[in-house]
Amino acid sequence: MKKELDSSTATELAASMEGVSKSYKHFKLRSIDFSLEKGTVAGLIGPNGAGKSTTMRILMGLVQPDEGTVSALGKSISSSEASSKQDIGYFSDDMRLYKPESIGWHMQFVRSLYPSWDDGYAAQLLDRFGLIAHQIVKGLSHGQRVKAMLLLILARRPKLLILDEPTNGLDPVAKHEILTELMRIVEDDSRTILYSSHNTQDVEQISDSITFIDRGRVIASSNRDEFVERWKRIRIHAPDGWKTPSMEGLRLESSHRNLHVLSLSNFHEQVPNQLQQSGIVIEAVESMTLEEIFVSSVMRGREEIQS
Amino acid sequence: MHSWITISLGDPRPLYLQVIEQVKRRVAVGDLPPGAELPSIRELAAGLKVSVITIKRAYLELERDGVIATRQGKGSVVADKPGLQASIQEGELRDHLKQAVSLGLLLGKSKTDMQRRIAEIYEQTQKVANEKRT
């Protein structure tokens, strides 16, 4: 019975964007299509300035797109609708807490605004994040401040969490505490998390889907294991005058005399044979880390635009 | 319950394969006897801090391999199948050998060359093991 429920809700979307564009003087978000399945964790990865924050702000209704449609939790998003945001928790490093007041003061304040505030959960979060209610914001470290802000958002128990670089600049222990908490949240399959970072390692482990964006475009979207299985680095030894064969997804990464390093974005079992037919010797087929895959995707995307 | 599984991002293999391998190993050595309950997908995902899709895929493949059985609405248990432990061990050995052979093929080694090398390594390893024992 539970299984049936699971499969029927599997394709329900917590949020989606279709053909969303937004132009600024020096930056353009180009026709972003993006959907977020309910009960999942989605990671948005991109270099600084790729458009991650803009995408998230549009999803929150904080920025109006020039084109395209946006919906979250079954409602179309526009900046005037505050009511649709009761169930959405948004984190951004731009947010500021009130410096002279304590964490506890902030908790009372948010509690008065959101009927969904959960006192018991807030107390647990204080404990798990190693925070003390009477600590004054002014004296908090960066990590403590981030955790305090997340506490204020999480204790409202929002259905959808939109977290813009929550682990940026945190030490590994604070990161671990936050990832642990995020995974506890999705133990409840009705809750959904969208999480951005410029660091693949922050999101790869917990994300059901990972979307790479660069220069305002979505360049690839999959899950961690599929990326890792499809992408391979191949080291070859080739005769003089050898040219990279035209094979979909194949890119020459570097060359030193007769030794070449190739990367392939859609590896399958027949590939080594096909390559050997072009007269080369394969020295090794290696897995790539998600970070290497990300960088190679970005570089390929940029080359495509230029050519 | 799931502290016996450890996931490493430093390991180049896909995460779901790491989960499969460790569950199989526990079953093979008898730590997880037939009928033992496995945590739910979301519980295990939260416990290991890996995505739900990773655990889903691992459970699906473990089910296909006959290592676990999933009963509708009741979660997953270790399959109650005679000879399961032996067949997991056999499968693991086969996988390792297959990997070695694939690499050999990739490097253009002949069948007799591979057989000779395996025999050599067998003897060396056996010798080392015997020395350790005494």
Short description:
The complex is a heterodimer of chains A (307) and B (134). By secondary structure, chain A is an alpha/beta fold. Chain A has helices at 2-9, 52-60, 103-113, 119-128, 142-154, 172-185, 200-203, 224-230, 271-276, 290-306; strands at residues 13-23, 28-37, 41-45, 67-72, 75-76, 88-91, 160-164, 192-197, 209-214, 217-222, 232-237, 250-256, 259-264, 281-287.
Overview of the structural elements:
The complex is a heterodimer of chains A (307) and B (134). Chain A is α/β, with parallel strands linked by helices. Chain A has two domains: 13-221, Rossmann fold, CATH 3.40.50; 232-287. Chain A contains ten helices and 14 strands. Chain A has helices spanning 2-9, 52-60, 103-113, 119-128, 142-154, 172-185, 200-203, 224-230, 271-276, 290-306, and strands at 13-23, 28-37, 41-45, 67-72, 75-76, 88-91, 160-164, 192-197, 209-214, 217-222, 232-237, 250-256, 259-264, 281-287. In chain A, the strands form three sheets. Chain A has a six-stranded mixed sheet with strand order 6-7-8-3-9-10, sandwiched between helices. A four-stranded antiparallel sheet of chain A has the order 2-1-4-5, covered by helices on one side. In chain A, helix 6 (172-185) links the parallel strand 7 and strand 8 (192-197). The termini of chain A are far apart. In chain B, a hairpin with a 3-residue loop joins strand 1 and strand 2 (75-78). Chain B has five helices and two strands, in the order H-H-H-E-E-H-H. The model of chain B has no long low-confidence stretch (mean pLDDT 89). Chain B is mainly alpha-helical. Helix content of chain B is 60%, strand content 6%. In chain B, helix 1 (15-28) crosses helix 3, helix 1 (15-28) packs across helix 4 (84-106) and helix 2 (41-48) crosses helix 3 (52-64). Chain B has two domains: 15-78, Orthogonal Bundle (Arc Repressor Mutant, subunit A); 84-133.
